[in-house]
Amino acid sequence: MTHTTIAPAATAPEELVRVDAANIVLEENIRDHPEDALVEDWFVDSVRQHGVLQAVLGYRNDLGQVVVRDGQLRVLAARLVGCTVPVLIGERPLDVVHRVTEQYVTNERRTGLTDHQKVAAFRQLELGGLSVTAIAKQTSTSKEQVKASLTVAKSVDASTALAGGQISFDTALVLAEFDGDDAAIAELSQIAEGDFHDLEYAAEQIRQERVNEAKRIEVVADFQAAGVRVATDEDSYESVHRLTNAEPTDTMRPQLDADEHKTCPGHAVTVVVYHGDDVRVSPVCCTPEAHRPRWASFGSTPAQAGPMTDEQKAERKTRRIQAVIAPLTLWMVLIDMSGRFSERMLPDVVTKLWDLREVG
User: Fold this and answer.
1) Is pLDDT at 271 greater than 90 in this prediction?
2) What is the mean pLDDT of residues 300-304?
3) Residue 230 gets which letter from DSSP?
4) Which contiguous run of DSSP H or E holds residue 266?
5) What is the pTM of this model?
6) Which of 237, 246, 301, 314 sits most deeply, having the most CB atoms within 10 A of its CB?
7) How far apart are the first and last CA of the chain?
8) Is the CB of residue 20 less than 8 Å from the CB of residue 81?
9) What is the pLDDT at residue 3?
């Protein structure tokens, strides 16, 4: 088999000239519809803003005209904005083989900036004193993209992962939102290795939990300011709906009246918030031994004197979680999460249901 080797074109003295774009002749090119690449305005805007910064390659034809072989997109953009183009004039090509080969190599082998390199560049411009608007204008980038890039740049975890090629820019932007929250970063970083939809779901859960917690703290502060005790998981308490003052032998066992129970030394409330504004306040008793259980056989144990031990608390929590597992399983079968409900979400759902324990 015979192999054909393309010898490099003969070298000749080169000269750099600046030519009006309207006077440049474009050589036949393998990019047969270059005008299509100018549909997006960013390229033309860049030339309008900065001019043509990198010289195009060309030669002079028999008529003395400047013919451009490499850089026709820059020439077309310069024509639209009416500016000159720097042209490095060299040897006229030998034949079509050399022309096509050179055009293929110069167009195909160009590599754009990585997301991390863009992020780092925007950060350097910001440190150099440019505003988001100025950066967007200077780089022909949308302000939204510049803001997002700077957000990633200021997060060590997000920018490091992006630089290492471990995550996409969109994933880095999600991580950057939770910068400083080590627990959230650790959870999201693990999920980021899988489906992006799972990452979005987990991030939204964390956002909602933050909103819920902020509202809960606000409500708790109001109760405490009013002198009302707010029970926590560290307390041994029981819902007033599960307690009664009826005698053990009484057939009718009405629940404690929530208003009347306010005079009880053990009176307290629990506060749970859903969706930011769905505040659920439930009356509980931190001295359940002062009353009697309404249903002695309802999976409960006789009230004890003194606080519960850690083992007793754990056992109580286990019993109550088991009480919701069966309906939860059915609910998981029926729920429609567009195929994105995963096993990873199950512990979160169980925890949410556990938060409902005080309402009986």
Assistant:
1) yes
2) 50
3) B
4) none
5) 0.56
6) 237
7) 86
8) no
9) 46
The CA-based diameter of the chain, rounded to the nearest angstrom, is 117
Dihedral angle at the C-alpha atoms of 128, 129, 131, 133, nearest 10 degrees? -70
Do 226 and 346 meet the contact criterion of CB atoms below 8 Å apart? no
pLDDT given at position 359 = 42
**Amino acid identity, residue 293?**
P
Structure tokens belonging to residue 155: 């997060």
pLDDT tens, 151-162? 999 999 999 999
Pairwise CA distance, residues 274 & 270, whole Å: 13
Rounded-to-integer distance, Cα 282 and Cα 284, Å: 6
CB 79 within 8 A of CB 56: no
Q: How many CB atoms lie within 10 A of CB 16?
A: 9
Between CA 17 and CA 29, with CA 23 as vertex, the angle to 5 degrees is 90
Per-residue tokens: 48: 């309008």
CA distances from 90 to 11, 14, 56, 135 (A): 8, 5, 11, 36
Contact 27, 92 (CB under 8 A): no
Tokens 């083989």, residue? 97
What sections of the chain are H helices per DSSP?
A: 41-50, 72-81, 96-108, 115-127, 132-139, 143-153, 156-163, 169-177, 182-191, 196-225, 310-334, 346-354
Q: How far apart are CA 324 and CA 111, in angstroms?
A: 56
pLDDT score for 324: 54
Q: For residue 271, give both structure tokens.
A: 């506060």
Question: What's the whole-number mean pLDDT along residues 94-105?
Answer: 72
Backbone φ, ψ for residue 244 (5° rounding): -150, 160
Quick one: pLDDT at residue 332? 54
CA distances from residue 22 to 59, 67, 92, 145 in whole angstroms, order as listed: 16, 12, 21, 34
If pLDDT is split at 50, 70 and 90, which confidence band does 137 have? confident
Average pLDDT over the chain reads 81
